Q: What sequence folds into this?
């Protein structure tokens, strides 16, 4: 598959096509916690992935480039404190990784590594008074709560000896587990019996 060159008009090979999605909608929505835990709602992601995969295959033919989620982080607008930065978030994230694999996607670029309430790493920056501001990049998406610092090692300005700390949010562990457990070839898999609310994904071993 090629794209027209800007100057020569000649075809330029494409390696990757990306699209963006925030499965849970707005981080300001009160529906986010319920959507994360609703299998029927999460299943609505599969047809969207399938449509994009089918479109790329149709126009690219045998030379189809890879298909990626170029940006996705659950809920847009910096996520939602108490939802997309907690264990609850692993349900949509794990389900989405499995769905994308089944629907012919090659990668997902997670929004974001740090910053906001959808980050894989919880960023804490001390400020005056020894308190800690957690979460958002430049305050985006709210502070995510405050933690008192007892003052050990602080200078006159209230900053401690360590001016930056990062700890993994639960989704980071989901990403690491997926990377180390799941292989490159997706297998056909299903659950027998009562499958209400059950999502199944299987791959070859890493």
A:
């Amino acid at each position: 598959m090629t794209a027209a060159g800007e100057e020569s008009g000649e075809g330029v090979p494409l390696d990757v096509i990306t699209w963006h999605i925030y499965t849970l909608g707005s981080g300001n929505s009160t529906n986010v916690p319920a959507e994360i835990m609703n299998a029927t709602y999460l299943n609505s992601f599969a047809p969207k992935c399938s449509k994009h995969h089918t479109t790329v295959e149709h126009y690219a033919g045998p030379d189809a480039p890879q298909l990626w989620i170029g940006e996705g982080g659950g809920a847009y607008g910096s996520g939602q404190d108490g939802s997309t930065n907690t264990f609850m978030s692993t349900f949509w994230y794990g389900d989405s990784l499995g769905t994308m694999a089944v629907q012919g996607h090659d990668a997902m670029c997670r929004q974001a590594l740090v910053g906001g309430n959808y980050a894989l790493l919880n960023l804490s920056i001390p400020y005056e008074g020894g308190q800690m501001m957690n979460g958002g990049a430049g305050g985006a998406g709210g502070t995510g709560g405050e933690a008192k610092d007892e003052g050990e090692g602080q200078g006159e300005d209230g900053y401690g000896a360590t001016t930056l700390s990062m700890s993994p949010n639960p989704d980071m562990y989901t990403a690491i587990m997926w990377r180390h457990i799941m292989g490159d070839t997706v297998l056909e898999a299903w659950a027998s019996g009562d499958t209400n609310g059950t999502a199944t994904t299987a791959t070859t071993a890493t």
